[in-house]
């Protein structure tokens, strides 16, 4: 809660910034740092549901917002990596908010939908409801572990394991054949070893089932599977064939895959990048006020009072050139000048 400071009790940008600053003054564990404060609604003298209170008259201003924190070590390391790359950080955005801005429509964000981002290093599950982030869970397992499992079991390098996963991998072993073989270069053998598709699929399926089961237990704690929006899969690991069908079997609700529609980026691995751009571009003015990034408009000068400076015209010098009727006259004139020059030289 914050008391409006202006004499006429009109809420200004300064009041909004102060109520955001007051919201950040709360007990945060020393090992965590505030990433963002996302406003949900303002309350002016008991009247709630206000999105932008500026210009309203009131005595007491309150803010209902979501405060998102993260481990200081991870946040610090991310910032250092970006700065060492020669870039400057403008702001930090929570990934589920960015992806949901492109992977979900407004109805899915309002009525409730689960977003599962299957990355390389981790798999995250987020719940969007009432156009707000209500729940988030991170499983430290991702597509890289699937590649590592293939590498260990088939005794091949990580590069070969990644290639095999992309070219021959499938998420459901029952839908593959044990009579279809492909070569795999293994350590310690000169000739490639033949591996059947079913065996590879069993390796992939075991890890994916473990990831989905961990997420399912976390979602059931908040009854997220009861939401009408179902699940939206995205991320690089979600591009593996059969992942959507395997997710439907485990979660037992509707599951669909989000693929960006932009030309050259039609792969779920680009969902975060595209979502980040759209989310930041769509931030409203009240968010920028809270960040202290409001641009003040300059004084408008009437057109009649402006003095228009006339452009300076610079005239180029005109060089006179002698013209001759034909080439013979030109040669005679040149010979005559040379004769006069020699006569003057020896006089």
Characterization of this structure:
Keywords: Cell cycle, Cell division, Cell membrane, Membrane. It comes from bioreactor metagenome. This is Cell division protein FtsA. 39% of the residues lie in helices and 19% in strands. It has 347 residues and is α+β, with helices and mostly antiparallel strands. A hairpin with a 2-residue loop joins strand 2 and strand 3. It is extended and about 85 Å long. 24% of the residues are buried.
Mean pLDDT: 85
Tell me the distance between the termini.
Answer: 107 Å
- Assess the beta-strand content as a share of residues: 15-25%
Shape: extended
In CATH, the homologous superfamily of the largest domain goes by the name: ATPase, nucleotide binding domain
The share of residues in helices is: 25-40%
Helices and strands in order, then pairings?
Blueprint: E1 2-3, H1 13-24, E2 32-44, E3 47-50, E4 60-71, H2 72-84, H3 95-103, H4 106-111, E5 113-118, E6 123-129, E7 132-139, H5 143-154, H6 158-168, E8 181-184, E9 193-196, H7 197-221, E10 231-234, H8 243-251, E11 255-257, H9 271-281, H10 285-290, H11 327-346
Parallel strand pairs: 5-10, 10-11
Antiparallel strand pairs: 1-4, 2-3, 2-4, 5-6, 6-7, 8-9
């Amino acid at each position: 809660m914050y008391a409006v400071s202006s004499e006429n009790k009109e809420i200004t940008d300064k009041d909004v910034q102060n109520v955001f600053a007051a919201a950040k003054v709360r007990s945060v564990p020393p090992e965590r740092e505030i990433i963002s404060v996302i406003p949900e609604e303002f309350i002016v003298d008991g009247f709630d549901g206000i999105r932008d209170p500026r210009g309203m008259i009131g005595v007491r201003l309150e803010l209902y917002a979501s405060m998102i924190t993260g481990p200081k070590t991870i946040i610090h390391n991310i910032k250092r990596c970006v700065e060492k790359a020669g870039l400057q950080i403008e702001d930090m955005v929570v990934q589920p908010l960015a992806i949901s801005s492109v992977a979900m429509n407004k109805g899915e964000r309002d009525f409730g939908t689960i977003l599962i981002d299957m990355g390389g290093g981790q798999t995250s599950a987020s719940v969007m409801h009432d156009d707000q982030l209500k729940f988030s869970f991170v499983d430290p397992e991702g597509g890289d572990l699937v590649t590592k499992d293939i590498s260990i079991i088939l005794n091949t390098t990580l590069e070969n394991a990644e290639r095999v996963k992309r070219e021959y991998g499938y998420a459901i072993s029952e839908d593959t054949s044990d009579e279809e073989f492909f070569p795999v270069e293994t350590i310690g053998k000169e000739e490639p070893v033949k591996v059947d598709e079913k065996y590879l699929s069993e390796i992939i399926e075991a890890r994916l089932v473990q990831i989905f089961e961990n997420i399912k237990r976390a979602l059931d704690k908040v009854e997220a599977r009861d939401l009408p929006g179902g699940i939206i899969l995205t991320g690089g690991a979600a591009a593996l064939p059969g992942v959507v069908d395997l997710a439907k079997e485990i979660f037992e609700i509707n599951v669909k895959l989000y693929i960006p529609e932009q030309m050259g980026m039609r792969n779920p691995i680009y969902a975060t990048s595209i979502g980040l751009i759209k989310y930041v571009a769509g931030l409203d003015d009240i968010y920028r006020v809270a960040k202290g990034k409001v641009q003040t408009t300059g004084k408008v000068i009437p057109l009649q009072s402006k003095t228009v400076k006339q452009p300076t015209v610079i005239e180029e010098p005109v060089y006179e050139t002698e013209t001759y009727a034909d080439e013979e006259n030109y040669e005679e004139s040149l010979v005559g000048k040379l004769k006069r020059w020699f006569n003057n030289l020896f006089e």
